[in-house]
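Quick start: read one record
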Amino acid sequence: MQSETGKGMALEARHISFRYRKQKDWILKDVSLTVEPGERVGLTGPSGCGKSTLAKILAGYEEPLEGEVLLDGSLLPKKGYCPVQMIYQHPEQAVNPRWRMEKILCEGWIPDEKLLEDMGIEREWLRRWPSELSGGELQRFCIARVLGPRTRFLICDEISTMLDVITQAQIWQKVLELARKQRLGMLVVTHNMALAEKVCTRILSIHDCSLTSINGGIAG
């Protein structure tokens, strides 16, 4: 399906509904959204409203009970490298603690020296275990490993919440720089409205299982 702006194909959630099977209440009900290449969509809302659930559905980590997620009009691939990649809030939960960082980094593709430099990753860190790195250092690895040449969309779920202010600023600067360079579409999940207004081109709020548009965000 062609995107509305005609600039290329999009990542689409169509009429997504989700609830855990042992619960009666819906977390998401008939939710639809589109993220286009180069677009940065903010997703805000209170804790427990379904932001992270929708993020996992868009990245293919959760299956909706109703609706579908499409990339270029087709379902997300079940095998191989997925063009939709997710960055988690807690990087230690996204890596294998029994692997050294070099193996973790190169799991899906082999980043070049320029990317490691851009992300502030030191060569000596490659020999370390995840437990030997700080949260900010580990998150830099998690971001670098999803920026492969086949990645087209990033799902960023509160990726800087657990970091200090200086590290937050450094990481977002690099993520946005690389996203613009590769023209990646992004869904930025955050409870921080100031952050959403600073980095996103448009902002959505999730409330009572549905989405509403919020004025704000930067242009371009």
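Residues 1-7 have pLDDT under 50 and may be disordered.
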